[in-house]
Amino acid sequence: MGKVVYIDTDECIGCESCCEIAPEVFQFDQGSGKAQVYNPDGAPEDKIQEAIDTCPVQCIHWED
Ligand code: SF4
């Protein structure tokens, strides 16, 4: 098993940037107004890393 991505939803501001970069992994949850991890294996690591790097509040993390 590799590392698994997760969102600290307390910090998420719902900008949807991660959902646009990797929609296979992150989806916007209308109910909470925040992003959620839909499928952690939905995209290659570098794509997920790109989403992590562009999150304006840096609330997406890897869990080993
Ligand atoms: S990029 Fe960050 S702040 Fe924006 S929706 Fe995704 S997790 Fe939330």
- Pick out the low-confidence regions: none
Strand portion: 25-35%
How is the largest sheet built, in terms of strand order?
1-4
**Strand count:** 4
H/E topology pattern: EHEEHE
Name of the level-1 CATH class: Alpha Beta
What would you call the shape?
globular
Distance between the termini: 9 Å
* Computed CA radius of gyration, to the nearest angstrom: 10 Å
Average pLDDT works out at: 96
Instruction: Give the count of helical stretches.
Output: 2
The molecules bound to the chains, other than polymers, are: iron/sulfur cluster
Into how many domains do the coordinates divide?
1
| Helical residue percent band | 10-25%
Class inferred from helices and paired strands: alpha+beta
Q: What is the secondary structure topology, with strand pairs?
A:
Blueprint: E1 4-7, H1 17-21, E2 26-29, E3 34-37, H2 45-54, E4 60-63
The chain binds iron/sulfur cluster.
Attribute tags:
single chain; Alpha-Beta Plaits; two-stranded antiparallel ribbon; two-stranded antiparallel sheet; globular; binds iron/sulfur cluster
Report on this structure.
Helices cover 23% and strands 25% of the residues. The chain has 64 residues and is α+β, with helices and mostly antiparallel strands. The protein has a single domain (4-63), classed as 2-Layer Sandwich (Alpha-Beta Plaits), CATH 3.30.70. The strands form two sheets. The protein has a two-stranded antiparallel ribbon with strand order 1-4. A two-stranded antiparallel ribbon has the order 2-3. It is globular. The mean pLDDT is 96. The protein binds iron/sulfur cluster.
